[in-house]
Structure formats: C-alpha cells, structure tokens
Amino acid sequence: MFRAQKIKKSAGVARNITRIRNDIAVGQKTFSVFNGRRTLKTASSSKVVSKPTGSLKPDGSSKPNGFRLSKTLLWANLIFPMPVIASTMYRHYAKGPPAKTWTLTSHIIIAVLRNLLVHCNKFTVEEVQKASSSRKLPIPSNISSREFLVPKNYRDIAGSSLKKALSPADEKAIDWDWEKDRLTSPPINGEWLESKGDLLDPRKDSTILYLHGGAYYIGSYGLYRQFLSNIIKHFKGRVCAIDYRLAPQHPFPAAVEDALATYLYLIDPPKEANMKPIDPKKIVIAGDSAGGGLSFALLMAIRDAGLPAPAGAMTLSPWMDLTHSLPSILSNIMTDYLPPIGFKHAPSPALDYAQLPQREDHTKLLENAKAEAKSSSVEAPTKHTENDVVSDRKSIGPFGEAVPTPGPGEENVYRIQFYASNDTLKLPLVSPIFDRKHLRGLPPILVQCGGAERLRDESIFSTLMATNTFPGADEESLNYGKPTQIALEIYEDQPHVFQILFAHKPTSRSIKSLAAFARDVTNSPEDKDGQLDVPRYVMNDTVTIKNVSHKGKITDVTKDVLESFTKEEWSNWNECLNRTSLKDRMNDVSRWFANALKEADEKPIKKEP
Predict the structure, then answer these.
(1) Interatomic CA distance for residues 331 and 589, integer angstroms
(2) In the record, what terms sit under GO molecular function (predicted)?
(3) What fold characterizes domain 143-339+428-567?
(4) For each successive 10 residues of the chain (609 residues), what is the average pLDDT?
(5) What is the reported pTM?
(6) Where are the domains of the chain?
C-alpha cells in the first residue's frame, strides 16, 4: 500500500497530465498544438475547436509548471498513453526511479517520450518530418524575430570549401552526388532572434549560430524559440537559427554544407541582405544532439578549409559517434529516452536511397541492384565482382527495401542511419569523434551532457582527446595539433538534451552557463551599469570538467576525473570505437536491453519504512 502523501502527489501529477492532454489536439496523422487561444483542426474532420491553453510569460516559460513537453510540436502526435503513465507511477513508488534523483514528473515524461519514439515506427519519415516542422512555437513578447534566406550561391562557395575538408577516400565513400543536390534544393531559411530594445546596444554584435537537433532527419528551428529566448535573456546578444537540409532525402554532407554556407553568409553577407558582416570572433556556433555533432563538423570544416574561425562553440549532448560504440550507449539504456536500436519508420519514398542524385558511374549499377532486390530474397545474396563500386552498399532498395549485397565474409547489415550509409559512419565530418586531427586546433568549446544519457561517454572521450588530457597522453600525441580548450559539464541523472524537456534547476544552470560562455568568448561588454546577469565563465585551463547536481550546484571534478580514468579504460574505449562490425554492436544493444528489462521486472518492491 502506498502512503497517503504519495497517493496525493500522484493525483497532483495526474491532474497536470490531464491539463497537458487538453493542450494537445490529435488528428489521424496530422496534429496541431497551440499556445494561447488558437484554432484546432483535425485531419479526420473539418470541425473547428477553440481551446484555451497556458499563457506565455515574457521570459519564455509557460504554464503548466514547466511542462515543455505539452508545447513541443514534435511530441504532439499522440494521446498520452495512460497505461504507460499508470505503470510508471507504480514503478516510481514501488521500485524507485531508474535514476536516483528523478522526480515522478521527470520519470513520467521520459517514459512517455520513450514510448512515443518507439511507436513512431508506425508513421513514415515524411509524416514525422512534417509534424516536427509544420508549426513553430510562439515567440516571447520581449523577443523580436526576423526571417531570412541564405542565397543559393553560398552553397556553391561552401561546397568548394567543403571539398578541401574531404579526402579523396572520403569523397569516394559518399554514395550519392551531393553536389548535384544543391541545384534543386530550396534556399536555406532561418530566423534572427534578439531582445527588444536598443538596436545600437554593442552586446547585440555577439551572435549565436544555432543548429537544431533531431537525428539529422527531423526538427526545425521553430521548436527552439523559447529555449533560445531564455539564453538571450542572459546573453543579451542575438541568435541566428536555421533549418538545414534533412536526411534521408538529403544525407551527408548536405547538413554540413548548409551550416557552412550560413556561416559564410554571416561573415560576408550580400549587399541585398541589409546587414553588416559579422566578425567571426563575435560568432559562437551551437547546437544540440545531431546539431551538436554538426557544430563540431562545422568547426572541423572551417579549420581544414583554412577559413576564419569563430569565437567558440557550445554543444548540448552532442552526437559525436554514429556507430554507437562507447559504454554509456548500453549502461544508460534505461535512464534515457533514446530508442534502444535507433529510429525506424514505415516504408516510404524517402527511404528509397536510389532516388538520390547519383554519380554517373553508379547509375546503371544501382538500377541493376534494384532489379535484383525485387527478384531476390535476403537468403540469396546478390553477387558482385570485386570491382563493383556499390558492392559495399548495404541499403539501396526501393521504398526502404534493403538490397542484400554482402560479399564473402561480410556482414549482412542494412543501413542503420538515415544521415549516412554504413560505409561513411566513421568519416570525421559524420562522426567527429573519428577526427584524424583528434579535434585539435578548434576554438574554445563548452560541452554539456546528461550523466544519465546514452551519449554521455562520447562527450567525455571527445573532451579528453581534444584537450590531450587522456591517460597516457605524451609529447607524441601533441603531433595532432594544438589542444583545444574545452569545458565539460556533466549534469547529474539528466537524460539526453534535458534542457528542452524540463524547466528545473539543472536547466536553469545550463542556460546561464551557455549565456555566460557565449558572452565571454565574444568579449561582449557589460551593461550600462557594469552589472552582469550571470557570472563570467572562467576557463583558465585547457580542460575543465564540472559536475552539476540535480539542485544546480556546480562542483569542479577535473582532478578527480583525470586521476581516476585509467590507461586500461581509455584503451578499452578505443577498442570499442575501432570495432569493425556494426552487427555486433546492434546485437550487444539487443542483449543488454533485454537483460535490463528483465532486471527491472525482477527488482524487488521497496518496503515501506
């Protein structure tokens, strides 16, 4: 039996969830979420309904009680699954939360989100993409906005620079004509956000170029308006956010090309843009999840092309390794909402990779491969000669049907990422953790990650490698270049990109750190009274590692981490990254997840004191 106070608390959470449900209107396969009093229309009916929802505060927060999930368009394609909520409430009090400091509210939101992502496989990529980009969140009243387009010729310039960052082997591995794609793609669209007030305020010269997350295939800058507005509140500068081309219709390196094109646009705009060039030393590149990995890729492309470097970068839960190799991918599988074995969707034209612009020498071979895929079964693999340029391509089939093409001794693993083929997952600009220069020679970077998220170890490994502070680092390891200065913040018990999900103390601490870092690396001046909304972000050493508690308390743990991380552990992590088999990785995840579920079911019920 639960105690009375727990029952009362559960009832309170249930009431909040009911309020969230009232904020969401769901049609058959289209939906709308609105803040304020707006019109709702479903796909199955032309009936129009007007519903009041939570009011928006000037600082970007809203009712009820920080439930950002209720206003996030990406997650609106569901009616909250009450069985999931009920079972989560039971587990929370009977067996305890997966992460020690999770509140019931956090536990429920993560469980519902995990359930949603699993059930997204019933929808096509196109439907999910439309859901995540068709509507934009409202802009707080204290923020002004202005949309803009990046002219297409900047893609041409970016493409030329990008080729300098790609080796001949990289170019050969890319399995489509990415240069031809820019000819038919629409311009890059984006939005400027800044606080209303003095247009001549020198602090507004400082600019954040934000690249949204979404596994490179979903998402839009419109989903980040409130989050970015909260950064602006303390930063006092401005934000430029864009929508880059998304996979699978526009796989690697389309996103990198668009990000680089926007950067070139900012530092050298056309006359008709009616804006002054922005000094690169006033620009901070930022992004979350895939956008965080893209931020690193952009920094590397700028470095390798010899372009002027920005002042710094900020990444939230950056996706650095698309091969999913490091231990936290397994160990944190129950404390994060990311799907155990990646994102899957119903068959659709978007998954027909043969529709991508093809190189001339591939076209005929692809046509043959598609024909063979229709007439062959997976049990009878297609045979290819050793000179066949597509013999290594694991997934080319029409409407997502994989073409079985493994040669002798190869593993039959189909394409596991929308963004890049299996053969390109270890290219540095796809997975920055494999940078041949070990992420050296980059501007100062702030990395934030959740201690309970599956991508945590990617942030830790990248930080130690880039700063040359890993166990066994010596003078020889300095041959990769000048170590990059990095501050790593690990947030206790927090999941992937928690800043977008929750309005709690860790999120508040994160936003203030982001604002302080951006302000300081761009040398933004103090306000007229010489006051600062947040303290300066001090980075005296090459590497700084901080632990942030669930109450927002910051502790410097640099010395402890560097001393406790052994050479053996570092060697094991490198061995994980160097594994050649994707199939083994996927099998490991499946086994680990099955065991984790079994352990959770067998966990004894807590005894009441």
Answers:
(1) 10
(2) hydrolase activity
(3) Rossmann fold (3.40.50)
(4) 50 50 36 34 38 41 40 46 88 93 94 88 92 88 95 96 90 92 94 84 86 97 96 94 97 98 98 93 98 99 96 98 97 95 89 84 62 56 40 38 43 84 96 97 98 98 97 86 96 97 95 95 74 68 96 96 96 96 91 90 76
(5) 0.82
(6) 4-133, 143-339+428-567, 349-415
